[in-house]
Design brief:
Keywords: Cell membrane, Copper, Membrane, Metal-binding, Signal, Transmembrane, Transmembrane helix
GO cellular component, one term: periplasmic space
Distance between the termini: 37 Å
Protein name: Putative Copper resistance family protein
Strand order of the largest sheet: 9-10-11-15-14
Number of strands: 45
Membrane topology: Multi-pass membrane protein
Radius of gyration: 38 Å
Main location: membrane
Strand content: 25-35%
Structural class: alpha+beta
Number of helices: 18
Shape: elongated
Oligomer: single chain
């Protein structure tokens, strides 16, 4: 009765698992293993004469619109698409998004990020199109565009699941297969029952562990899935992949239930598990394997044959690798304790070899046939990431086969030989000089570990896209791509050149010219510690636009010398980019040379577009001079220098409206600064008062300034200490906590006019009107002066600004029509001449979004713009005449705000990157041509392997018969 109830429990769990797996099969959509772009409108690289009204993207698989997006970016990197993304009709493989009307001429980037409904994989892509201008075309198409080869988190979570299900399926199948010959030998089966019971008990424990691993990995998979789509767990479960995950968790739970029942049956009293129960465990494990196939590349084709081939391929791999794990970690620990060890192993090895050889025969058929259905372009496969991982997998399989062959030989020559020579005592065999069983124990464990490594490659293959996805640009729009590749070996780089130092003193020198948006030439040189060129086989560069998360874009560089490679590419829009260079050496067993650079790409000044808008102050009467940007409130604070006005103004950049703040007693506000709490500190110029105004509650405090000289600037450090300069040889330091002023002496006869605080280094840099600059160490109050040497002089240093990116100091020369650059590291000065017009009186400065330096020119109604990398200078006209712009600031978007003192206005300069012209090039494919196709290689290989499999199968049968006869003779 008890046995019948137990069988019923197992039958119920088995039925649940099978039903769950069966339900899964009808829900297979048609797909191609990761959603890749099959076509689009506009097409990649298309140049349109008129602006399109929408963007249509068609994918190979159905995508989940909730977790998919299409972004369209202009040349400035700003998103321009409307918020109306939708499916095209009822087609869930196609997305569309509308564009605003009257788009300007230029290059536009389309970036996609979509969730595949079938396998739950998130794929990204990017390409460009042009309006009113040509799009650069490559001479050699990159090996991949923005293709995501593999998601490491997904691979990590799926790997334990694969191992766990292979372990359970393998040990169950091996248990059913291996013990038949042992039990059929008269007398021998009964003498091994105790050992067999212990083995089955260990098998039950391992089945529980494997099942727990499968379930745990399942939870990790859905967590990673939720993270990849930036959503909650329930949202991830609501996707089609999530629905499949639910079915997988049901079958996995059934697997754990069966395993726990078997474990409970054998935990206290080890006993041989019945074939019925083992078969139930095997059936449920096959159901779990089926759920894996249902989210595989085979299922993604939408055809039943690839799905079944994938499933049977997984089954055969489980029988092989799981069986080896069963022998290594279940059988051997128990058999080594038995006095029948050699006899058991002498039967187990050939019996298992027959299974493995049969499995390999099936793998030889299913593997190549499945690959043919998924991707039959051999050249494409070999050139892809998928193909490289596949090669590693095949090499590991070959190593395992070699171990198997060794074990067969070892079994024949070492374990059976003593018996044939009349040595019948197993203890004598174990203590023989060769220690055959001990060695077999070690080598079978090594083979099992190699099998687990092979499963790791399977996890990568399952998570990676097929070669056609990696080379989608070449296969679908081979004439166009985002980053063109061309050779220009004669052009010397004139833009950026950076050196990356790697191991053993080797270095990679990368030069980019002209290093701006548009076409750029790359020259990469690999040098040893003596600066000699390293003999390199190939080089690859990968570009990633980090601001918009576009990339990496991979480009194969063209070899022009022993260690020099060139490429040509187009930076679609400005911003922060990462360049990763990887070179393969010709020397065998040598490491690849790899280095990553980070840099900021900016448009050339000639391509800089500005839109200047001027906003009159209330009553058109205020005379603003010193604007201060408030990032927390997105406002600009400015004082009214009109005597007796009592006004502080704030200008809201969102609404373009002024607000007046009346301060009782305020006479004339010029300079101001914000502290870390958003409180405004200002100088009442005529009353010599330091004011503290809190915009949140309109409270105001005043502190008389002890120094009654002409006040020239104010600045606040990271500790909220207020610093004030004046026409004297000291600098004032005000502590808000004590409300006291301190004075720090500068060099005698100094005339400090402006300050720039370097909070990182704890330094204050001071522009000194007598022709020098000074540094003040905040911690020690040490003052150091710096002045140009020789014939180089600074005429009226007035404004000073710190370049936070390079650490360099820029000083405006009010009487010198120039800006001087000081390098604090090298202690050197360099002059950048500006407009030589005598009306040009350089004053305040500010950096824009592209890190260009803007310089106010006071009585000249123009503003100078300096490219800080090339020192190129252009001028932008101020629309209104007689504005008297003295000081500038910039907002969080990198736009420039100027105070137009005599025009009673603030000017806002909106800055963007204009279109760049690129020279069209002819494209060609970089996929290698092998001269043979897939079937020409696969068919002979399959035939030869099947012949070998047949020979080894015959040998396994012979070895098993021989071993059985010898064991019979001993019993």
């Amino acid at each position: 009765m008890s046995r019948s109830k137990s069988k019923n429990k197992f039958l119920i769990i088995f039925i649940i698992g099978i039903i769950a797996a069966a339900i899964s099969v009808p829900s297979i959509p048609s797909a191609h293993a990761h959603a890749i772009i099959t076509k689009s409108d506009p097409v990649p690289g298309q140049s349109l004469s008129a602006a399109p009204s929408k963007v249509d993207i068609y994918f190979s698989d159905p995508v989940d619109i909730r977790y998919s997006e299409i972004k369209v970016l202009d040349a400035d990197g700003q998103q321009i698409e409307k918020n109306d993304q939708h499916y095209i009709g009822s087609d869930q493989t196609a997305l569309s998004v509308s564009l605003p009307p009257n788009l300007k001429n230029g290059i536009y980037t389309i970036s996609t990020k979509v969730l595949d409904q079938t396998d739950g994989h998130v794929t990204e892509d990017a390409f460009v199109f042009g309006i009113g201008q040509e799009v650069p075309k490559s001479t050699t198409t990159p090996t991949s565009n923005n293709y995501q080869e593999v998601s490491i988190p997904e691979t990590i979570t799926r790997f334990p699941a694969l191992v766990g299900q292979i372990v359970v399926a393998g040990i169950a199948s091996a248990s059913l297969w291996l013990w038949g010959p042992v039990s059929r030998i008269p007398g021998f089966g009964r003498t091994t029952e105790t050992t067999r019971a212990k083995i089955d008990s260990a098998m039950a424990r391992l089945a529980v562990i494997g099942s727990i691993v499968v379930i745990s990995s399942g939870f990790a998979m859905i967590i990673v899935q939720a993270y990849s789509i930036n959503a909650g767990i329930l949202d991830a479960i609501s996707t089609k992949f999530g629905n499949m995950w639910v079915l997988r968790m049901i079958t996995s739970s059934a697997l754990l239930g069966v395993s726990l029942m078997l474990y409970q049956k054998t935990r206290k009293n080890p006993a041989i598990i019945s074939k019925y129960h083992t078969a139930t465990l095997l059936g449920i494990s096959f159901a779990v394997l089926l759920t894996t196939s249902l989210i595989s590349h085979g299922a993604a084709t939408g055809q039943i044959v690839p799905l079944l081939l994938d499933f049977f391929h997984n089954v055969f791999a489980s029988l092989w690798i799981g069986g080896i794990i069963y022998i290594a970690f279940v059988i051997m620990p128990q058999v080594k304790k038995s006095d029948q060890a050699s006899n058991i192993i002498s039967i187990i090895i050939p019996r298992f070899s027959i299974l493995v050889i049969s499995v390999l025969g099936a793998v030889v058929i299913t593997g190549p046939f499945l690959m043919y259905l998924l991707e039959n372009n051999l050249a494409l496969t070999l050139a892809s990431f998928y193909g490289r991982v596949l090669i590693v997998k095949l090499l590991l399989a070959c190593v395992m086969i070699a171990f198997g062959a060794y074990h067969q030989y070892y079994h024949k020559e070492k374990i059976l030989t003593p018996s044939s020579q009349g040595i019948r005592n197993p203890i004598m065999q174990l203590s023989s000089p060769n220690h055959s069983l001990s060695r077999f124990d070690k080598t079978i464990k090594i083979e099992a570990l190699i099998g687990i490594a092979l499963v790791a490659t399977v996890a990568i293959l399952v998570d990676s896209g097929l070669p056609s996805g990696e080379f989608q640009n070449q296969l679908q729009s081979v004439q166009y791509d985002v980053f063109g590749l061309a050779v220009n070996a004669n052009q010397a780089p004139s833009g950026l050149s950076q050196t990356g130092f790697i191991e053993n003193g080797s270095r990679i020198v990368s030069s980019i010219s002209p290093f701006t948006t548009g076409d750029n030439d790359f020259v990469v040189s690999f040098l040893d510690s003596s600066k000699n060129q390293i003999d390199m086989e190939s080089a690859q560069i990968k570009l990633t636009q980090t601001d918009n998360n576009i990339g990496p874009i991979t480009i194969d560089a063209n070899k022009t010398n022993t260690g020099t490679f060139t490429a040509k590419t187009d930076f679609g829009f400005p911003g922060h980019w990462t360049l990763r260079v990887e070179g393969v050496q010709n020397k065998q067993n040598s490491l690849n040379l790899v280095y990553s650079y980070n840099f900021f790409v900016k448009p050339g000044l000639d391509n800089l577009q500005t839109d200047i808008k001027e906003y009159k102050t209330p009553g058109n009467s205020s005379t603003p001079r010193y604007p201060v940007y408030d990032s927390e409130r997105n406002k600009v604070w400015v004082g009214d220098t009109t005597l007796g006005s009592g006004n502080i103004l704030d200008f809201d950049l969102a609404t373009n409206k002024f607000t007046e703040h009346k301060i009782p007693g305020l006479n004339s506000m010029v300079y101001s600064a914000l502290d870390s709490h958003g409180t405004l500190w200002y100088i009442d110029f005529t009353r010599k008062v330091l004011g503290n105004y809190n915009p949140d509650d309109n409270s105001n405090k005043e502190y008389p300034i002890p120094n009654q000289d002409f006040l020239t600037s104010i600045a606040i450090d990271k500790n909220d200490t207020v610093w004030i300069t004046s026409h004297s040889d000291d600098i004032l330091k005000f502590s808000p906590s004590t409300a006291k002023f301190d004075s720090i002496k500068l060099t005698p006869k100094s005339d400090p006019l402006d300050m720039a605080i370097d909070n990182t280094q704890g330094m204050i840099w001071i522009a000194d009107g007598i022709g020098k600059i000074s540094s003040l160490d905040i911690a020690t109050s040490k003052v150091t002066d710096y002045a140009p040497q020789g014939n180089f002089t600074m005429k009226g240093p007035t404004g000073i600004i710190l370049d936070s990116q390079t650490g360099k100091i820029y000083i405006s020369e009010h009487e010198g029509q120039a800006v001087t650059v000081f390098d604090p590291l090298l202690k050197t000065f360099r002059k950048i001449p500006l407009d030589s017009n005598p009306d040009n009186l350089p004053y305040g400065m500010a950096f824009d979004k592209y890190h260009n330096l803007w310089v106010a020119q006071h009585t000249l109604d123009k503003i100078s713009v300096i490219d800080t990398r090339t020192n190129q200078v252009i001028e932008k006209n101020i629309p209104t005449s007689g504005t008297w712009v003295q000081w500038l600031t910039s907002d969080s978007e990198g736009n420039i705000i100027m105070a137009e003192e005599k025009a009673n206005a603030l000017g806002v300069i909106d800055i963007s990157a204009g279109p760049v012209q690129s020279t069209p090039q002819q494209a060609q494919s970089s996929i290698p041509s092998l001269g043979v196709n897939y079937t020409q290689v696969a068919a002979p290989a399959m035939t030869g392997l099947l012949v070998i499999v047949g020979l080894f199968y015959s040998k396994g049968i012979i070895d098993l018969r021989r071993a059985t006869e010898q064991v019979k003779s001993q019993n």
